[in-house]
Amino acid sequence: MKSLLLSMIILAAFGELASAAGAPQEAVLAYPLASDYINITSSSDFEKYGLEGHGTPEDPYVIEGLNLLNHIGNGIVVKGISDHLLIKNCSMENLTGRYTLRDKDHISAFGISIEGAENVRIENCSVPGISFKGIKNGYLVNSVSSDDIIVEGNPRSGSFLIEDCQARKGLHILGMANCRVENCQVENGEFAAMNLINSKFSNLTLTNCSFFPTGLSEVDFEELKLVNTTILIISTNPDECMLNLKNSTVDGREVYYYQDKPGQNIRGLKAGCIWLYNCSGSVLDDVEASLVFIARSPGTVLKNSKIYEGGQGIVIAFSRDCVIANNSLPESLEGIVVGKFDMSSDNLTLSRNTVKSLRFGGDLDEKAGIQVSTKGNHIIDNLVTDSQNGILVSGANNTISGNTLANNNVGVKLEGNYNNVTGNNFIYNGQNGLQEKSRFARPDASLDNNTWDGNFWSAYYGQPNSSYDLPDKNVDGIGDVPYRIGFYPGGPVDYRPLVKPVVGAGMTPTTFFRAYQGINIRLK
C-alpha cells in the first residue's frame, strides 16, 4: 500500500496545479487530469499496484486502508476479472467527475465501481457512490455510500448480499437473481427493485424515498420501515400490483395487505397502508391511513376516511366502477390518483373529497390533487387546494362538475378530449384552466371537443377579471359575454360564465369566503 499512498500524494499535487491554472477554455471531452485512482482490468494489475493476496477464496487480493480525498475521477475501478478481491476499510471524499466544458455537464464519480467481475467483496468502506454491474458473486457489508448504491446483474446468476449498509442518495437493485438485502438504510433518493428473481429484502428503513418495485418474481419484502416514502407502481401489468410488505410499517403505522378476498368490509381501521388486490366489491369506511391502494378490485367503495398529513394518498389501479366519496386528504403527497398507468380504471365516482396536495413534480411527473387518466369518470363536488394542478385529466369523456379549485398553480388541466367542465368554482389559482396535449398523445390528437361551460371564475391580479365583474343585464346569474380562460388567445372559452359562485357540497359559504379572501384553508 506504500505505492498507493505515494501515487495519491503525487496526484493530489497535480490536481492543485491544475486548479490554480484553471480549466482550458476550448471545448474538450474531459477534464485533463480525470483518472481512476486504481484501475484493475487483469490479474497482472494486482501486482502492479503491489496488492497482497493470491486471488483465491482463501487468500483474496486485498485493497485495504485507502483514504482518498479531493481526487479528480473515480476511486477504485475493477473490470472483467475472475480473481477473488476484498476491498475493506477504505474511505473517500470529494471525488469530482469529468466535465464537458461546452454544456457544463458534470458527471459524478464513483468511489468503487465493479463491472463484469465475478468475486468481489467490500467491507467497512465509506465512499461517494458504489456500482456493481454484470457481477456474478458480490458482497457489500457494513459500508456507507454518500451517493447511490447501484447493483445491476447481467447475466442473472450467482448471488449478491448487501448487509448493514447505508445509501444516502438511493439504492438500485436491477436485473438480479439470488439477491439479499438486509439491515440497510436508504435516504433521500430512489429505492428501485426491478426485474428480480428469487430475492429477499428485510429490515430496511427508507426515508424520504421513492420506492419502485417492478418485474419481480419470487421476491419477498419483510420488515420494511417506510418514512415519508412514496410507493410507485409503474406497469401495465396488474400482477405488478401484488406488493405484500410483510410485518412492515408506513410512517410508523402497520401495513395491512388483503389479497383474493372479495367483499371485504373494513371499518374504523387505523393503518400506515391499506392495500387491496383482487378484492372486488369491498367497502372501506371511516379508515385512516397514509396510503390506500386499490388494485384489481372493481366496485370498491372508500368513504368517510382520512389520509394522514404527509401521507401518499389514494391510488386506484385496474379497478372499474369504484366510489371514492367524502374523504379528507390534508397535505397529502399525491392526492387521489386514478389509473395513472393502467388506463382501465373507468367509470369511477369521485365526490365530496377535500384534498390539499403540496408536492410539486417536474414536467414529466406532474402532481395533482385529483389525477385521472381514464375515461367515463364523474369528478363532482370536491374541494381541491394548494396543488400543482387541482384536477388533472388525461382521459376522455369525464365530467368535472360542482368542484371548487382554490389556490392551485392550475385549477383544472385537460390533456384528453370530450371532457365536460361545468358548474365549478375557480378561485385564485395561478392559472384557472388549461388545455394541453399529453406527452403520450398521438400527434393528431385534438382538444377541440372539451367543453368549459357555466363555471365561476376568480383570478389573481394580472389575469382577466373575475366573472363576478361581467355584465348580467337580465340578472339570470350568467354573464352576458363569454369568459376567456387563461392568458393566451385561442385558449378555452366559457360561453356561460357564472357571476356568482356555486354553493354546494364542494363549497360552503364559509369555505368560499376564506378562499376568496386568500386565507389558507385548513382541511380536517
Please, could you describe this protein's structure?
- The protein is mostly beta strands.
- It has two domains: 2-231, no CATH class; 346-524, no CATH class.
- It is 6% helix and 42% strand.
- The protein is built from three helices and 52 strands.
- The strands form seven sheets. The chain has a 29-stranded mixed beta sheet that branches.
- A hairpin with a 2-residue loop joins strand 24 (249-250) and strand 25.
- The chain is elongated, with a radius of gyration of 28 Å.
- Mean pLDDT is 84; it is low at 1-32, 99-106 and 515-524.
Q: Strands, helices and their partners?
A:
Elements: H1 2-21, E1 38-40, H2 44-48, E2 61-64, E3 67-69, E4 76-79, E5 84-88, E6 91-93, E7 99-100, E8 105-106, E9 112-115, E10 119-123, E11 126-127, E12 130-133, E13 137-141, E14 144-145, E15 149-152, E16 159-163, E17 166-167, E18 170-174, E19 179-187, E20 190-207, E21 210-227, E22 230-231, E23 245-246, E24 249-250, E25 253-259, E26 265-267, E27 273-277, E28 283-285, E29 288-289, E30 291-295, E31 301-303, E32 306-307, E33 313-317, E34 323-325, E35 328-332, E36 335-338, E37 349-351, E38 354-357, E39 368-372, E40 378-380, E41 383-385, E42 389-393, E43 399-401, E44 404-406, E45 410-414, E46 420-422, E47 425-429, E48 431-435, E49 451-453, E50 456-459, E51 483-484, E52 493-494, H3 509-516
Parallel strand pairs: 1-4, 2-5, 3-6, 4-9, 5-10, 9-12, 10-13, 11-14, 12-15, 13-16, 14-17, 15-18, 16-19, 17-19, 18-20, 19-20, 20-21, 21-22, 21-23, 21-24, 25-27, 26-28, 27-30, 28-31, 29-32, 30-33, 31-34, 33-36, 34-37, 35-38, 36-39, 37-40, 38-41, 39-42, 40-43, 41-44, 42-45, 43-46, 44-47, 45-48, ...
Antiparallel strand pairs: 7-8, 24-25, 51-52
